[in-house]
Amino acid sequence: MEIRHLKYFITVAEELNFRRAGDKLHVSHPALSKQIRDLEDSIGVILLKRNTAGVRLTPAGEAFLDDARNLLLKAEEMVARARTISDETKIITIGTPGPFGIATLMETISAFCKKHPGLKFELADIPDIQQL
């Protein structure tokens, strides 16, 4: 199952019409129908009942629709978060005079990073005289 399968399924389920869903997605009706069949085959469940009168969701399809919407929303949030962190990561270098006090410093840095995920820290072993 791929993200595009979820997008296709959600659109067909909302439109209850392959042609309208295909137009909305810019995908041909036969290609869209095949993608939905592939999704159903991959999960082993019929999600949509198709007949000459139209399309309707099966009970499994109704449940799957709710979960698919939630999963798609979560995937979009993941992408947005990754982009934010990637674009805004700042590196702060902290000079330390050797191994003394590093354990306490690491606890403080760890707590700070949880509150500010866009920051990264580097520790540099710098003698006292250079730090001054």
Class computed from helices, strands and strand pairing: alpha+beta
CATH architectural designation of the largest domain: Orthogonal Bundle
**Text of the CATH class of the largest domain:** Mainly Alpha
Profile the largest sheet.
2 strands, antiparallel
Q: What is the fold-level CATH name, i.e. the topology of the largest domain?
A: Arc Repressor Mutant, subunit A
Provide mean pLDDT, rounded: 84
First-to-last CA distance: 58 Å
Shape: rod-shaped
What does this structure look like?
Helix 5 links the parallel strand 3 (90-96) and strand 4. The mean pLDDT is 84. This protein is 64% helix and 17% strand. The chain is of the alpha+beta class and 132 residues long. 13% of the residues are buried. It is built from six helices and four strands; from the N terminus they run H-H-H-E-E-H-E-H-E-H. The protein is rod-shaped, with a radius of gyration of 26 Å. Helix 1 crosses helix 2 (18-25), helix 1 crosses helix 3 and helix 1 packs across helix 4.
Set out the fold topology.
Blueprint: H1 3-15, H2 18-25, H3 29-43, E1 48-51, E2 54-57, H4 59-88, E3 90-96, H5 102-115, E4 119-125, H6 128-131
Parallel strand pairs: 3-4
Antiparallel strand pairs: 1-2
Helix pairs in contact: 1-2, 1-3, 1-4
